[in-house]
Design a protein that fits this description.
It is a single chain. This protein has about 110 residues and is an alpha/beta fold. About 20% of the residues lie in helices and about 45% in strands. The strands form 3 sheets. The protein has a 4-stranded mixed beta sheet with strand order 3-2-5-4. The protein has a 3-stranded mixed beta sheet with strand order 1-6-7. Strands 8-9 form a two-stranded antiparallel sheet. The longest helix is centred in the N-terminal third of the chain and has 14 residues, at about 5-20. It starts with a strand and ends with a strand. About 20% of the residues are buried.
Length: about 110
């Protein structure tokens, strides 16, 4: 089981962490939401919780709870810029369908 980051994603996360001044890494997860059933959750992690799996890629720690890992195993987190839009992109091999707005998915 694994979660990976592209160099671009890691660079942006490291920059956010430096500006924030503290934190262990980022927490990646899923929650029930949207028209397709699940949505990604990405936030700063200040501590490791019981049951967290910790992955490190390009010098960034990614913490994920066991339930979310079932849906996100193999996911690559990227940071992309397309025209005027930029942000994190989840390349999740488990996704079977996603809503048109891109906010939610199902596996």
């Amino acid at each position: 089981m694994s979660i990976t980051l592209t160099e671009a994603a890691a660079r942006h996360i490291r920059g956010f962490m430096q500006n924030r001044g503290s934190g262990l890494g980022i927490r990646l997860g899923v929650r029930t939401s949207g028209c397709s059933g699940m949505a990604y959750v990405l936030e700063f992690a200040d501590q490791q919780e019981d049951g967290d799996q910790v992955f490190e890629d390009h010098g960034v720690k990614v913490l994920i709870d066991a339930k979310s890992l079932l849906y996100l195993d193999g996911t690559e987190l990227d940071y992309t810029r397309e025209g005027l839009n930029e942000g994190f992109k989840f390349n999740n091999p488990n996704v079977k369908d996603a809503c048109g707005c891109g906010e939610s998915f199902n596996v």
